[in-house]
Amino acid sequence: MFKGDSGGKEAIQAVIVGDHFGNEFRPVTDSLPFALLPLANIPLLEYTLEFLSLGGVDETYLICCNGGRIIEDYVERRVKNCAPWSRSMKVVIIMSETCRSFGDCLRDLDSRGLVRGNFILVEAGTIGSIDLKNYLQKHVNNCKNDKNAVATVLFENCGAGNPSALSKNEITLGASAKNRILFYQNKRSSKIEIPLDIISGNKTVDIFHNIKDVHVMICTSSVLPLFSDNFDFQTRDDFIRGLLMNEEIMGSTIYTEFIKNNEFGVGITDWRSYHATSIDVMHRWAYPMTPDAASAGLYRYIKNNIYRSQDVQIGKNVSLVEDVVIGPKSVVNSDTKITKSVIGPNVYIGKNVKIANSFIFNDVKIEDNVEITHSVIGRNSIVHSKSRITMGTILGIGVIIPTGTKLEDALVQSHDPLNKDPNAKIGPVAYKVRFDTDETAESGKESYSKATSRLHLHFPDEDESSEGDSTEQSEDLSYRNSPLPDDTNMFLTEVMDSLSRGYEDKLQCDNLILEINSSRYAYNVSLKEVNLNVVKAILELAFQNLPCKQSTGLQYWSTLQPLLKYFKPILNNYVRNRDAVEDALQAVEDVASSNSEIADCVVKVLEWFYDNDLMAEENILKWNSGLDKKGKLYKKVQPFISWLEEAEEDSDSDEED
Amino acid sequence: MLSRLMHPNLEKSDKLVDTKKKKINKMIDKKASVKDLKQSEDNNMATKNRADDILDLINDFRHNKFKSSHEVAIKTEILMEKLISQGQWTTAQELMDLIRNRIRIFSNALPEETTPVNIMRHILKVIREEYLDFKSKVEEQQSLQYLVMANPEDHAGDYTKPQERLRSALLNNLTEYKTELETSVDNIASQALEHIHSNEIILTFGKSNTVEQFLKSAAKDRQFQVIVVEAAPNYKGHLMASNLAKCNIQTTIIPDSAVFAMMSRVNKVIIGTHAVMANGGLQAACGAHTIALAAKHYSVPVMVLVHLYKLSPLYLCSYEQNAFSVCQSPASVLPQRNGPIVSQVHVYNPVFDYVPPELVTIFVTHQGGNASSYIYRLLSELYHPDDQDL
């Protein structure tokens, strides 16, 4: 099982699940497999294979589902053309066209029995530059120390608000000191509930929030059987959550590692992460997988992260602002402005076109005066002049947009979706469509999560999401400010009620004790809190009985004194041992810190307690040493304390005499 | 009668033998043709796999397998030796085409790495010389008249005549070249005492194997002090400093920003380089230009230790040249954990600096010291003018 520790001799294996299993990338992925979706004009699969090869992998199993033949052809062609990864890594293609989820693929892989030792599990769309050998070694060490360890998940510490991490989901992770995952939550919510037993059962728990999933999991061979045994595991998240929930039953543990600062990893799961990763690739985070390095001199890298193919025709007065890739044989006509966008190969762009934050795939024709922002134009599409395509519009393959069309937040495909919706038709070869994605079914009411799921990427001014966040936060705050309907507080008011009633009606103190005890059980309050609250109640009762609101310490004391006298039996009953005295002193401190009146006469209160043998001098001295030395209370108490100390010395000397 | 009787038999048998022979011949022919097929298949395979060796070399580069340029040089030389001894070529022209093809593949994939290309280019020149050498020997035997009458330009570009002994001669030549490569570091290091004097303060930058050996060799006989610039963001200077300190050299490490402040106290700057351009400018680790400028300001001599295989016949045309501006991942400069700011800024992490030739005082090769204005002369010794442009 732990063959990996025999050193570099053992071939390092990796498994790529070559599909995305969702509607997120439709209609662009209708005829193009997700694995071959171009990112900065290079198919995603190419990045993943190169990432694995540079990470030190010797053998890769690529599981193909939708469009498996196309992927196979692609890989064969690349091997023939001596792709860089093909030199040191063998790629085995597994056709599992019946698989409908991530879990299905792994179950299929398990039934084939190809993978025997530790392996690295990634998805198509995982991009990075990580020294995988290093983390494989760490995984092997984890396995040595913990026989139940089955997997190590890699994360990247990426700081709050990183756009690559800002997908629909936010990860919260709890890990022990030895990097064992104790808690895992992958959803966006304002509240995080962490089970108590995680905190109580471990000496230290690190809670991580600003992290990004790099979609790399290093697995032992027992991971595949686990998928087979639990056929409800559909995704990787299911797997992690399932193992954590049923830890006792399955007896399997998962570990986590954080990749180093100078490494980079990301997984593409939706358009949002696609956009963010495109920018990252243009900013050279995935080095050496950059457009200029990957395509052997096809692109030239110019300042402001512009990648220009050698044979691009660029007209007069064209401004390429920043973060632009322009593929070979493309034509850009005069007065056009392009920023933060990817233009595929063989694209024709007319005059005075504005393109920002968009992705134009290959063989697209865009006529004059078109504006495209935050959108994707699928291959072979034609956009006729004066159209505006904005706000997360995604055009499928071969769509023709008629002159002057305005599109906002729409999915458009070239063939009739057959639902006979008259509004759906934009042109003869352009129809609006809808795909029910999983998360809209779950949380249809949340338009926010839907909005962030598409290509709305206002990086500098995250107006939408920040608005959402702020409202969430303000809700939180109001919730926090309202007084807690706590049992202890209810108990305090109850005690105060019964005491004031008892004082007015001159009830027997024994009866009052009974009453307090019964409310103690009613509200399930500990003895400590009873002691504290009874003393508190008596001290606060004096305020209620004060003649006027503006009062001094003397007036307070004159009202408190009879109360104390009257309730002495109760105090005798509760303030019995040393702990109780501590509680009583705590109560005095609490009330004194919130009311200046009692602070003025705190010495008198303490003296009364002392004289009536309710408090011993060592209790008070101990309490005094615990007080804040700079606080007002400490200063007020000092005369009494010094008197006490002197008395003690006197008594000591008396004893000596 | 007997003879008569015998005769037809003989004839018959002869005929039989003939037919048999024919059959056998046919068989042999068939076999031969099968062999030919196989051979041609092999040839096809060979043409397919022709550039495998260079692709493996590129792969090694991508996987960061080389620790020093010296390793690269040796590896390339071994590759060339194999190609000459085992490669499918009969004439010098074919061999040169094979090598040219490799140069093209390599410089397309890794335009910034010049060492393997330089070595291959040098070997091209060696082939040319050897070929012409043989040719002139053959022609010496011919009449004087032929030599006088013959137009030398007729044969200048012609390397198509097969020569049997070319292969072994080339291999001999390469063995010599290999020893030259292997001893280059030691040869440069042995000159250390000529350049480093007692109680000098020497400033060096980042990590260079050659500079390390150079300083160590000087430290055997002389006491001096070394200041190592750490070379952010890779901080290779740290390793350099610890290696020097292990050899009892008094070493100080300083950040890149302190170079100017320290320069006034420095007696000499000794650095290595990634490559030397045709005009004597350096393609050196990023940060070298600052050091060279600071040295110029304080009139401190800058010494560059360089192996001959680092001399490249290329010029720097613009800073956007593919071969020059290699920018690495910004991760080591501005890690992702810095949050959203990371995606809003452009971070450049270039690997190389261009140092103009006028800032370099002296180049130290294994043959001795040269001024930067002399580089063109060395280049013409190393490479044939026809091989500059490939």
UniProtKB/TrEMBL annotation, chain A:
SMART domains: eIF5C. Residues 458-485 are annotated as: Disordered. GO terms for molecular function: guanyl-nucleotide exchange factor activity; translation initiation factor activity; translation initiation factor binding. GO terms for cellular component: cytosol; eukaryotic translation initiation factor 2B complex. CDD domains: eIF-2B_epsilon_N, W2_eIF2B_epsilon. Keywords: Cytoplasm, Initiation factor, Protein biosynthesis. Component of the translation initiation factor 2B (eIF2B) complex which is a heterodecamer of two sets of five different subunits: alpha, beta, gamma, delta and epsilon. Subunits alpha, beta and delta comprise a regulatory subcomplex and subunits epsilon and gamma comprise a catalytic subcomplex. Within the complex, the hexameric regulatory complex resides at the center, with the two heterodimeric catalytic subcomplexes bound on opposite sides. Belongs to the eIF-2B gamma/epsilon subunits family. This is Translation initiation factor eIF2B subunit epsilon. It comes from Agrilus planipennis. The lineage of its organism: Eukaryota, Metazoa, Ecdysozoa, Arthropoda, Hexapoda.
From TrEMBL, chain B:
Keywords: Cytoplasm, Initiation factor, Protein biosynthesis. The keyword Transmembrane does not apply. The keyword RNA-binding does not apply. GO terms for molecular function: guanyl-nucleotide exchange factor activity; translation initiation factor activity. It is found in: Cytoplasm, Cytosol. It holds the Pfam family IF-2B. Belongs to the eIF-2B alpha/beta/delta subunits family. This is Translation initiation factor eIF2B subunit beta. The gene is LOC108741981.
